[in-house]
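WARN retry 2 of 3 for item q-0093 after timeout on previous attempt; input resubmitted unchanged.
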Amino acid sequence: MSNPPHAAISGKSRNLIISATLLALFLGALDALVISAAMPTMVADLGGLDLYSWAYSAYLLARTVCLPIFGKLADIYRTKTLYIVSILIFIAASLAAGFARSMVFLIACRAIQGIGAGGNFALVYIVLADISPPGQRGKTLSLASFVWGLASVLGPTMGGYIVAYFSWPWIFFINVPLGMLSLAGVSLYLVETRAKKKAATIDYAGALTLSITILALLFIFLLAGQTYAWNSPRIYALWAVAIIFGVWFIIIERHATDPILPVSFFKLRGFSVGNTAVFMSSLAIFGFFGFAPLFIQGAMGKSPIEVGNAVLALSLGWSIGSLVLGRMVHRWGSKNAAVLGAVILIAGCAFTLTFSTVTSLTTCYWVFAQIGVGMGFVGLATILVVQNSVNSSALGVATASHQFSRNLGSTVGIGICGSIFTAGFSTALHSAWVESRPEQLSENLAGQIHRNADSLLRPEIQAQLSPDMLLHLQQAVANGVQHVFWVTLVAAVLCLICCLLLPHENPDPNIA
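OK item q-0093 returned
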């Protein structure tokens, strides 16, 4: 397919646009993680412990739902206008969140933040693709992946630092001056390089049914196996909503004058297979992100600092893999790069099956970095395939669909892996509990563990266990996480199959 028209932009202006858009992306990515270290303090001030997880989930849900909507709008309206609106929404919600006096109000602000972040996430890849000179799209887009990795490294650390030396509202207030800087750069320097549709109409019915379908699916994987059993009536009801509105959405899109997500795109191999590949890779790596740290701390008995170093290796591998591929993809070709990334991802996931309670941290770091490199390759290569599979007039929809697939894969991955870990851990723990003579525990401690098995992972509880019982606990954690490692390996293999099915693409600087 043809590339978007490339307007004459000076090197200085291009660099300023890239800096401004990446800053907006950094803030959105950072806010998904920065509150993790601050949440205990925030709950202590605001109350609402029972709503703890919704401070994360509200942001995730709103961000994911808005991705395809902003992607479609970017093909109709001026990108600069949409970017300004999304940044202003993010700044206003951040300011309001800093003044929150209840957990309910904070969650509402986080949801509005998610709307702004959804716009930023969709638009940044569209803008970077639009302003990239011929042969430089892969290199330019790799910068966005690097920013993702940087945010995942700095997020929890920055949150802890702000809480320790300032106060938790500054986690949100800091977004205001940085957001205004990004807003100024976008307002002053961003120019349109792609012709927009002249007589387009907004597909309101499609946007509504798509949003309800996405929300139902996300709620399923956020709640099933954790808050409710997979076979509970509530989860069945959510499945029914997702299926009904999903089918309704497809019917609407087939007859819409200007559909928000053209069903015909799924007939394009690059579009459908590319999005499926990144979905599978995201399922693998975010399942790994969520539970590999638990293995290091709960099974290997390492400190939180050592856990943080392991996650750092994973994030740096992702960032470095993207940067390296960004400079090589025009030589290798997107399909070849995606296949190589999937092979690297499989090798890393397979190696985790050899992990045990005596595995060295050095081994963990190298394996985690390898998995990150594989994801960096697959993520960047597939977005190039998806973008090149459609006409430039639909670049917004194609780019947002890739971002959406990645977000959905991460949510599904964490949900499935959470359920599988809980089942494996509970079974192994029950066997260990019988063998370890729990009658040796105090009545208070035994009651606390019986009510909440997760409390066994807390250091103060572990300090009260005998060495034999502690060993059984570590083995139970290892057993549960090993099941997760198998899931990540299966997802990585499916990712490779998808990458092998990508359309052939001759290495050519003019399409990178």
